[in-house]
Write a structure and sequence with these properties.
Layout lengths: L1 H20 L15 E2 L1 H8 L7 H27 L2 E3 L5 E3 L1 H28 L7 E2 L6
Antiparallel strand pairs: 1-4, 2-3
């Protein structure tokens, strides 16, 4: 009986090594984001002069500018790798970039909402003035 058990583990280990040598199937679903891209230069032009009067507004503005490249990087990574990744053992896992994108987007919209509420209805720039339909955004 001990021989059967040993043989079983030998075969399992042999199969595991053989599977590790084979390239994994990476059937990533293509993700294409269809929303408008944030144009950083236009965003800076729209808000720069309106936030100079207050340190708090300027700090929020700078944080928003820091978050935009993170959102772009997450989107690019998800477009390349897909929403799910195949691990070394063959298990399918959710791509961590999904969570990062969600968190960065939440932070961006929260900060933008706060900044717009501080500016008031008169100074608030139109959202279409800093969103692009074009592919290039920087």
């Amino acid at each position: 009986m001990a021989g059967d058990r040993t043989e079983y583990f030998k075969m399992a280990k042999r199969n595991q090594r053989a599977a590790a040598k084979e390239p994994h199937k990476r059937n990533a679903e293509k993700i294409e984001f269809i929303g408008k891209k944030i144009n950083i230069k236009k965003f800076e032009e729209a808000y720069r002069d309106k936030v100079k009067d207050s340190a708090t507004k300027f700090y929020i503005y700078k944080n928003i500018l820091d978050i935009v490249p993170l959102i772009t990087a997450c989107k690019n990574f998800l477009e390349q790798k897909g929403a799910f990744l195949v691990g070394t053992t063959g298990t399918v896992k959710a791509n961590p970039a999904q969570k990062e994108l969600r968190e960065n987007t939440k932070a961006f919209t929260g900060l933008l909402k706060e900044l717009d509420s501080m500016l008031g209805a008169d100074d608030k720039p139109d959202i279409n003035s800093w969103l692009d339909d074009e592919e290039e955004d920087e």
